[in-house]
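chain below, 451 aa
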Amino acid sequence: MNEENKELNELEFDEPLEEVIEEEEITSITRRVYADQGDPEIESLYGKYKRGKLIIQPDFQRHFVWDAAKSSRLIESALLDIPLPVIYLSEEEDGKEYVIDGQQRLTAFFSYIDGQFPDGRVFKLTGMEVFPELKRNLFRKIDDDLQDKIRYCKIRTITFRRESESDLKYKVFERLNTGAVSLNKQELRNCVYRGSYNELLKKLSGNDDFRHLLGLKNPDKRMKDVELVLRFAAFYHSTYLNYKPPIRRLLDNDMKKYQFISEADSLELKNAFKNSVTIIKSLLDTHAFKRFYIGDEKNPNGYWEVKKFNASLYDILMYSFAKEDKNKIYQNLDSIREVLLHLMTNDQEFIDAIEISTSTIQAVTKRFDKWRLTLQNIVGIAQKEPRCFSFKLKQELYDDDPSCSICGQKIQNIDDAAIDHIKQYWMGGKTIPENARLTHRYCNWTRSRND
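prediction:
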């Protein structure tokens, strides 16, 4: 499989989408999270499920992953009256109950009663140790007393009522979420903050251009694509100037504030998101949200990062183009691409801000400010004397002779080429073709200021 065709959760990130922080203490939790306990029979839960009142596979949960053998062992445990782990449910505003922990167990029970798994496979018992005579038996084929044993098996449930405070309920779900494959933060948000905003985020994550930029053909199984949309929305709503770490709190607060987003706010966010995605596709295409690295003395040819997704670059690019006039941006697309490459290869403060301690206020402010000011120098008020040569001139020089004017070696890729002022800009050199020469970015970067 080519790297660009991998799903997002298979790619490496330069930083975690959310940094790990110590969990805050929860005080007086029993007064603010309300829960009911019960011991319903499987038959009762199955009836709720069939009536659409119990949702066992909400989209914040993993798909059913148990095989027939593991599911059969659960059925055998019920036949042996072995106590089963607690099922956790959440009552929501729509009156339905959603499974928070226990989806696999309930799906196994209900699938056996139905005679097939969710994917359509027939469910016949297998690997039975105490009841080997039941091997390869469908539910309808076993004796009535054994069917009753399964139907009337009781299982402890704890249901968090709808009046529980959502932020504390979120923390309780985190504490429960200690299994082998835990729900991540976005899957938990999708559970706690259900509403029109959550649906909007998922819808935007399915934007064709957005998926193209991320290299996704299908929705990410762990909702990392949805979390990236939320990152954009959170910075769009609060701006980077109001950012305080950790990033997790910024995202949580945004989902809570806009949980039932108005139509007007929804339309504004849609348009801003689409504007950014469309511009970035034209600007960087599949190189979007990835670093470009300068070469070195041994090999002056630079290169694009193939695998690692850089969330810091994602944040500043998505934020900066949200409200820009596309026509003005497209008129300056080549220049914008050039200055971005320059920042990623020549500006050490910018490089540090997208690679080192990226979630601090200092790093966030530094990279947003540098990119915003750099972009505005191009699309804002025009300078009397431009500093950057045009991409058209660079293409002409490259097509004529792709050799570096400093080291003499061939420049392998036009993105690794820079146009250098023969008489340096700071010394009064003009940004005109007669004062231009083609170089490696690395060679230009290492050129002495007195040269």
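Residues 55 and 98 are 5 Å apart (CA to CA). Residues 34-164 form one domain.
thats it, cya
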